[in-house]
Each structure stands twice: as C-alpha cells, then as structure tokens.
Specification:
The structure is a homotetramer. By secondary structure, the first copy, chain A, is α/β, with parallel strands linked by helices. Chain A contains 15 helices and 14 strands. In chain A, strand 6, helix 8 (about 175-190) and strand 7 form a beta-alpha-beta unit. The longest helix of chain A has 22 residues, at about 275-300. Chains A and B meet through helix 1, helix 3 and helix 11 of A and helix 1, helix 3 and helix 11 of B.
C-alpha cells in the first residue's frame, strides 16, 4: 500500500517554505491575473539572475499549457515547430499543439548505432547521452530544404525550434551544442524555445557546462519548471528579449494557461528564487540520483541511457520486475523484448538518502 | 496602500483547513492527472450530495478553462453555444470559446424598461432581478427558428445552452425558471450547462428556492466553483448523467484545464465537501452581503441591480468615488453618465463583520 | 417546373465570353496555384483599374472562403472582426469565422425607427437605405471603449472591420460614409475590409458616388465578386497596399480557398476585366432592377428596403405569395407578421427585359 | 516557350463534353449548394456503379479541401489520422489537417532495402511497388500500442486511417492488401479513408485487381478525383455507409470545400459518369504511360519506382536534365546525389500518342 515511489518527479507537494508563505499571505487581498507585486518581485529576481533586464517573465499554470501557449505565440499560421521525435510536444501532450493549429515537425533523436557504440564514457549504457536531443546538422539540413529551391508553399515551414533541457530522457545539451543550435536559429531568424520543465535538474547536474545565463542568452524563450522542482504547480516563462506580442495575457488565457489568482504562482517562484532555494533543492535531486546511479552500477544493472540528471533508466527482467513492483512504484518506459522492460527511477527535490537506501534493498 | 478591498471574490487564498491539509499531505507520493484517491473521494462526496450516482466528476484548473472545455465537449463542429449577451463566455473570456472553434449565440439579457418598472420587490434598484439571465421565451423562440423551415445550414446551430448561476450580475434563476429552461433544452435535445463559478453564493442566498440537487437534476453539466469560494483554485465539473465522451482527459488537456498534480484539486474539494464547509463559508459571504446591502439602503444608496448574492452594485457620483477609492478597492463596472459610475462591492467566504463595518465608514 | 427565377444572383453559369475562353485555352498546359500568366494578366488589369500599383491580387474559390481567409490573415489571435449584425460573416457562413478561431464583434445595423420615419427619399420603404450598414459613430464608440481605461485583456479586441458593399440588403455606403469609416480605422490602425461579393452591382448603381478607385484608396483589402457577377465562380482579392503576410498561399490553402488549377480563376477575371465587361454586365443588372422597382411601385407594392442595387425586397400577403410562388422562384427573407412575408427579387448580369416583363405578369 | 509538358496531371482544362454541357446549361437557373438535380443524378450514378445504395455522395471543390473536411468529420477532438509519411495529408497540404486541429500520425512508407532487393518483377526500379503505401503489419502494431496497457491519454489516438490509391508515387494497393487494412480498421472500429484524387488511373491500371466496387465495400469513405481526371475541378466524396454527421453541409462550408454553384460540380461528375467517360479517359492515361514506360526502358532509363499508373519516375543525370528541360516541362521530385535527379513524367486523360512520340525525341 504505502510503497516507496520513484515513479516520477511530480508526486509530491511543494517545498515547505512555499506552504509557509501561502499561509502567511493567505488573507492579503491581491489583484488577479499576474498583475500583483509577488509576480513582479519574482520576475525581477529571475531577470536579474539571467542577466536579461529586457526580458518579459510570465507565470503559467503547467507544462503542456506553457508549451502550447509559447509555440502558438511564436508561430505564424503556416508554420510548424521543429522538435525531436521524442520531444514532449511531439509525443505526450494529447495533440495540444495540433489543437492550436500547428504541426510538429519531427527530427530523429535516437543516435545511429555507430554513435553509441563508441560511448567510452558510458560503457554500461545502451544509448549514449545523445538520446532525446536534436542535432545541429539535422536541424540545418532540415531548414535548408526550405531555402534550396523556390516553392515550398505546400509544406509546413519550420517557424520555431523546440528543445527540452533536460530532455524527456534525462540527457543534456552541452554549451557547444546549444550554441550551435542557437547560431542556426539566428541565421534563419527562427526563434529557439527551451522547455525547462526540469531545468533545475539540468543546471545542477555534475556533468553540465550550461548555466541559466547561457540559456538566457542563447534562446529566445525558455521556462523554469516549478511543477517538477519544488512548487505545487506553475512554470516561469522567460522571453529573453521581450514578449513577441503586445497582448500576451489574452493569448495565455485562450490556451488555458492563465491563473485567476496569478499571485499564487508569483509567490511560489519568488520563494524559489530567494536564497538560491531553486538551485539548492535541484542539487539534492542530483545528489540522490548520483547515489542511485552508483548503487545501480555496483549491483550490475545496465543503464539504458547515460543520464546525467534526476531520471535514471534501467533494464530489468520481467520476473524481477514483478517482485520489485510489490515494493516500489516506478515509471514504465518500454519493453525491450518479451522478457525485459525499461523502467525509470526518478529522484526529486525532496528525495532523501533514506529513500535511496530503502530503494536499494529491493534492487 | 493597504486599502480595504471589496473589488472581487478572488482576492484571497484558501480556507485555512485547505492549507492545513495541503501541509499534512505534502510528502505523500500521489499519482497525477486526477487518478488519485483524493479526487475519487471528493467526486463521491459530490455525487452523493447531488443525488446523481451516475455522474462523472472532474476537477479542472479554473473558470475559463472549464467553460472552454465543457462547451467544446458538448458541441458538434457546426454548433454554437447559446448564452446571455452578458454571459462570461460571451463577454469576458478573451475569445476562448471562439479560439476553440465555436460561436457564442447571444440572447438579450437586460429586461425591457417596462419589466423593471414594476419591480415592486426592489424599489431602489435600477434593474430588476432579471439582469444577466436568459428567459425561456427568448430561448424557445431562438431555437424554434432552426426548426421552422427547412434550411439553416448556413447559420450556426444552437448546440448547447450556457447559463451562469449566480450570473455575472449576482442574480439568480428561480427553480421555476430553471425548470422551464431545462424543459426546452430536453424538448430539443440540447444540453444545458450551468456555470457555477460562484455556486455556493447562489445556493446560500436567502432569496433562492434552488438547491444543488435541483441543479443536478435539471442540467446536463454544471460546475461548483472553487476559485471564488474558498479554494486556492479549481472547479469541480459534474456531468450529471455521465461524460459525453469516452476520453475526457485528452480533451481537458488540450484546453489547458488539466493539472499534472490533479490531487491538489481533489484534496481541496474533498475538504470543501467535508462537514458542509463549502456551504458554511458560502453562507458567510451572503450574510456579509446582506449586512452591506442593509447599510447601503440605510445610507440612501441606489442599488443598480437587485442582487440576492455576494455581489452588490451601486451607483456613485464620480466626486464621491474619487475620495472613496482612496480607502477602498472596488470593482469598476460601468459609467451611467458623465458624472456617475456603477461599482461592484463583493463579499466572499472570508469577509468579516469588521470588514463591513470598516467599509461602511467610507460610504 | 421551369418557373421563372429571381431567387438570387448566383443561379446561372458564366458570361458566354468566359465559356469561350475556357474552351479556347482548354488544352494549353498551365502551371497551377495561381502562378500562371492569366492570373498575372488579370491582376495587372485590376491593379491598373484601381490605381494601386503596389497592390497584391489573389483569386480565391468563393465568398465564404475569401471572408474566412482574409479575416484570419488580418487578425492577431486575440482579436475579432467588427461587423454589422446582419453581415454575411456574422450571420450566414456556418460559423466559418469562429471555426478559424475568431469572434465576430457585431454592431447594430438596423436604424432606429425614428431614423427611417423621416426617410423622405424613400417614402414607400419600410427601412431607409441605412439597413445592413455600420455607422461611423457606432464603430468609433465601440473601438473607443478599448482605449478608455487600462485593461480589456479579457475581452476580444477589435482587430479588423468588415463591411459589405452592397450589403446583404442591397444598400450602399456613400463616399462620405466610407471615408468616415476609413478615417476611424486608420486612426486606430485597424484594417478595413470590404466584401464586394456583389461589387459590380454597387459600382453601377444609379445612386452611388463610390468608384472602385475610391474603394481601393479607402480600404486595406476588398474583393471583386465573380460568383454573383458573371463568373462561374471565384473572387478577386485586392490587398490595396500589399498582402499582410510573406506567405499568403499556404494560408489560402489551409482555408480551402486555393484552387489547384488557379488559372481557371485568372482567366475568368482576365475576361471580366477586358473591355469593361464586368462593369457592363453589372450595369445590366442595375437597369433591370430599376425596371423592376418602377414596376413594383406602380403596382402599389411596398418596398421593404430602399435598395439602389440588384436586390429588391417587397412585402407580400401570404395568400398572394402562395399563388405567386407557383410561377416565380423568389428568395424568402422573413415573416413580418402572421400574414405577410418579405421576399427578395434579385436581378443579375444576365437578366433580360423579357424576364422582367414575364415577372410583372405575376405581380 | 511552348514546351511540351509532362509535369503533372492537372495542367489542362476539362474533357470537351464537360465544356459542352456547361455551355448547354449556362442559362438554366439552378439552386445552389448541391441541392440541384445534376448533383442528384451524378450521385445516383456513382452509387449505382459502386453498388452502395445507402451511400451519401457530396461534391467538393478540390483535393486538400476534401481531405481536410473528411478527416475532420471522421475524427474526435483527441484523435489523429494515420497516414504514410509520404501521404499527401502528411506532407503537401500546408498543414491543413493541423489547421483543423488534428495530428497526422505517420507510418513509414519506404520499404527496407532488403524488400526492394528481391524485386524480381521490376529489375530496373530502385524502389519496389510498395513505396507510398502503408503496410497492414505496421498499422496493426501501431494501433495495438493503444490497447496494450491502460493509459495512453497523453498521446494522440489513431481515429482514422488515410491511404491514397494510387499513392503519391503512382503505386497501388492490391485487393488483398486493401482487404487486410480494411479488416484491421473494422476490428478496431476505425474508419478507413481512401484518397482517390487519381482514382481513375488506379482503376484502369493493367496491374491492378481492385475495382471501384471493391473500394466501395472495403472503405468507409473515398473520393473520386475530378481535378486530375477530366474535370475542370472537383472531387466526388462517397461515404459508403452514409455520412457520419447529420449536417455535413455546414462542416463542408467551414472547411472551404462548399461551392455556391454546386451544380457545376454535379454536372461535371454527371458527365464523367455517363457512358463510362471517366473510365475511358483514365484508360487513355494508362495506355500513354505504358507507351512511355516501354520507351524509357528501351532507352535504358532506370525507373525510380515501379509505377503501374500514370506517373512515371526516372533518374536523370543533371547535365542531361539541363538540356532536357529546355524542351520538356517535368516534375522535379528529388536529388539522389550531387549529379542525379529524380523526375516525374505524368500522362493524363488528354495525353496523345503524338505527345509521347514528341517526348521520346528528347529522352
């Protein structure tokens, strides 16, 4: 009944400091729709941290709402958004992008076998650290086809590029990779959008050279995930050079991403961006994931993906898995064959060393 | 700076019992998207209260999201939703209904002058208690035109009827009026949808004969507002005879109305529907509104609308208003002429007698 | 069986010269999608006639497609189109505007009774020549409300203005009225769009001071109707200052308004704009309507609207109408009471004096 | 200048018999929107030919309009349409399907190299006759994933299956293949939609065992292409078991697929389905393609695809192509490498033996 759970990183409430501040401010009377001082304060803190004083910051309800809203804001009617075929907007949003009228133009995200074969850094991983990402060459080749000869007006133009960091597979872009994508987007004047639903876990990875300032300067818009990183819910969207429209609020509202009591979001992000709370709790998830990873390798588990963040993927025999599932809730990922399953084990901002020890008993 | 505020009923957080339960359950690990036990428990309580065991209950993020999602679920592509011209979906949702592809077909909602002239019950009100409502005769006449002769295929068919209760003007349908609308809808097999963003304040009005059970039996779908009635956010949708689609979740998701941590909504409604909390706190708003109304009439204010719920509307001279606004935050409603303004004063679940006393000082 | 028909102006094929040219060019092999020389030639002729060398001209399939496409091109996502409540886009396009995501914001188009009462010019008409039109004052007042105070982000912004000329009731704007609307639109930087489905019949009216050059200089986009004025089908859209998008073709295609064999449209308009054919055949419809009008007044019929174009509206007793309908096909307009019906009698580019004489026998 | 053209099959007008009938009926006065007797007559002929008396037949403007309308009619809001990645709806409709809110779910359509290696029937073709088609196994596997475990509500459900016959590559399904697809669709209650923009060329192929009656009994909806097969424009949609909605007309209208003068479409199809005209002119295209194919093989050209219909694909050296293009208009398909290009040569209903002889001179 009360199994230990590593099934995902959005199974708990919020950091206690957030709950405290909600209680403290509960009877203040605050104006709605994000016009309040908590939103302003949180936005200022984020802009200062990012080093982008000209940015516009909005606080939206959740991840799918945010992806749908931003992409629809960025695209012209005849444009689609380029994404990895494994990207959240391509695969797991119930068609929300198409619902708002746009095609998701997918690029392959799995490396060729040759790529992963030489993965000297990750000898026990099936896939290298490239899975879930789009590659600069693929992107450039794709966009190029729309400029090579005269008439592509019966196809869908690439009008924005979506990447997630960390990706849905826990992998990260390097600063060099991100710069390359950014350069291509700027060459063709196509906005680059980074989905940071798990941004903290990327920024605090031991194996990243990408800072939030790097992101703020390399992309046109990104969001800082709250739902999966310490908030009850909410995502902070940063248009690094200002919003692409004079009236973002009605657009946010049409897409279901506007909260009447917007200050609830501002207050949470204000709390997360006070005293480095966001980074500190993200760091905890990474440290716990490292512990888990070390334990898995010691026990001889094969890592399915070489993930440097809070999501770890292993292959397990189905007989073992059946027993395991009596004690632990995990994320089902996919079947590799009739007898093996890939599962996800995710740590989060609140995972404790005791949780990992407990988990290890069943592995 | 810290003015007293009667500007709206969504300026405060949540009932303290909700904050307590959020804290108590904060580190439980709960499955997402409304599949959890808190949602189940809240749904059961609501179904039991309504006397509709076959109902489907969903918990959505906010009012506009809910209106957009339900209306899109009810309508066929060539259909529109009938609403009062003052209805929230017609006037104040930034085009969210049209964004999802449907026309709002408006009926007049202001009574003819002759109607209000005889308003013996409300001698000091400019408008009678009919404002904001649609009338059975208007509805029937409108629908009838689509059946009178053979071809209306170039017009938009009435495919659902939207009413709000209380309306945006604080007025209420009587049981007889609601029954009449319901009869017409059933005669033509058109679903009737009741927006209950402020439902509690309607149910607890001293001048209503409509119960939640009446509503549940007379309409096809309604929602119980949380955002404005004691919850941090969230609305509980009740399809009284079951959902009109096999897969409501992806539709809710496409419209931005799905919360990843769905249990946050379930938990709030479970709390509100334990020990009559929802009704009790709604009753407080009504009692405070009655106090306010009494005070206003005593001071000789003219009520703009004869509202039996928590929203009260008065006409104020602009000079007076300027001074008033230095002490009190109010809702601007409209100008009646160059020198007068209609303002809204709203009580809520947390308004105290002291708040009213304080307000009265400035009136 | 072979009744004489005055039911509408799109009941016949095309001017014989068009059929001849279709036959002449039938086996030429021509590139698709409007890239051909016939489209180019027709566009040049239209631009020259309008005196707008910088215009972009497109040939679209039909009226509803054209309205839907243009309006969606002009509007931002959070904007709606302002139209008379009687406007085609508001009332008779099966929700096509809403299908593409936008609200139609309606202004009243029927004059107050007082207005028509003094109609000395049209003593026998129930309504003056204002019906179907929007008035400058109403438009300005409406737009003004969006600039009067700070926040209308929960309403739908007026993003374009739609007028029809002739209107659906056969009435026409004067040059002064059109200029006034144009001035308001330019003051607020809102594009003005003129639906000219029956443009020829407006331009050739005996009671107009508006030329096609006036229109081209006063509006941002209009179209020259072909379907109702001598073509098999098709409308010529003129963006007087150039198209508002870099890629109109995919937008036209998404809205179903693009014809694969685009030259069929170009060829028709090239024919219509050679040797003043379009104007000459439009003139015929007007002359026949004048004959009809004269005959009607002589016979004592009451004109329902004082229409200066090809559509004439009369009130008929239902008993008379029954008999009349055995000989003539007419357009049903509306019931005025239990015993009277308003009917439309429309002439067109091919109506003959013999047709009118024949019709007169039954009146 | 007046080069010979084999660039596509929609470069000419209509069969002369159609032009004659347009002229004959030009001054009849006919009711609009497909309610006329020509539409009725054409529909009856088609239903009789197909052996589906219960079918509903509609005449729509063009191919993209038809695909968009039908798919939107078939799908629920949370569903997408399954298509080959090379399918017209996936690749060449400017995002028209997504514009109406739905995702195109693509299956691979290129055979693995091993498949084509053994292609004994077509030794000179790079690709076997499978290109452009979806395979029953792929379809079943894809659909199965949505039934394998419990929750796919965050993905887009397969709600209809789209195939083209002939495909965009000129290939054809065998009756066995079509039956297999049909069986899978019926097993899962998913409608099967066949795009017959070039249907005649498929039916008259020398290498097909599929009749129009087979199609009518195996699919839920298909259309008989007119634009590419002898009509000026227009497609005849056949819902083999009746339309899936009570009001198809407003839906057709919203998608830009409705013609005001609907009889222009009915008259054309009535002509095409009188005295086997449609089949006879289709047969001509096939005979000319066979002549062309024979000539190409004799001259040693490598066929890129083994096409049994009117579209033939060859690989040409770029130097040769440059010279060739001075005499012949062709369809550019794709580059195979730096020095070679795949081109399409299409015959049609009006291609003559003289055209082929002329073309051969330049090959």
């Amino acid at each position: 009944m009360s199994k230990i759970s590593f099934s995902s990183d959005y199974t708990k409430g919020a950091h206690p400091r957030i709950l405290e501040r909600l209680a403290e401010t509960n009877f203040e009377q605050i104006d709605g729709y994000g016009t309040d001082d908590y939103c302003k304060s949180a936005a200022e803190k984020i802009k200062k941290l990012c080093g982008t004083p000209e940015a516009d910051v909005f606080f939206l309800v959740g991840g799918t709402q945010t992806n749908q809203t931003i992409i629809d804001m960025l695209l012209k009617p005849y444009e689609g958004v380029v994404a990895a075929q494994t990207g959240h907007v391509a695969a797991h949003e119930a068609g929300a992008i198409e619902f708002s009228g746009h095609k998701v133009l997918t690029l392959p995200s799995f490396p060729a076998e040759a790529d992963s074969a030489d993965g000297s850094e990750a000898p026990s991983a099936v896939y290298s650290d490239q899975v879930g990402k789009i590659r600069a060459k693929d992107l450039k080749d794709y966009i190029d086809t729309f400029y090579g000869d005269d008439n592509h007006e019966h196809m869908v133009f690439p009008g924005a590029v979506y990447i997630s960091h960390p990706t849905e597979y826990g992998t990260l872009y390097s600063k060099a990779e991100l710069s390359e994508l950014s350069d291509i987007c700027r060459e063709y004047d196509i906005p680059l959008f980074l989905d940071g639903a798990r941004l903290g876990y990327g920024l605090m990875s031991k194996r990243t050279d990408v800072t939030i300032q790097d992101i703020a300067h390399l992309v046109d818009v990104f969001y800082i995930g709250g739902t999966k990183v310490g908030a009850l819910f909410g995502e902070a969207v940063v248009f690094t050079k200002g919003a692409p429209t004079k009236h973002p609020v009605p657009i946010i509202k049409q897409h279901g991403a506007l909260l009447a009591k917007g200050w609830l979001l501002g207050l949470q992000f204000d709390t997360l961006f006070t005293d480095d709370l966001y980074m500190n709790i993200s760091k905890n998830a990474i440290e716990m994931a490292e512990l888990l990873r070390k334990g898995l390798l010691e026990k001889g588990y094969k890592l399915y993906i070489d993930s440097p963040t809070n999501q770890q993927f292993i292959v397990m025999e189905d007989d073992r898995l059946k027993e395991f599932s009596e004690h632990v809730r995990y994320g089902f990922w996919e079947k590799t064959d009739d007898k093996h399953t890939v599962i996800r084990l995710a740590t989060d901002w609140a995972t404790t060393k005791e949780d990992i020890d407990e988990l290890m008993k069943f592995l």
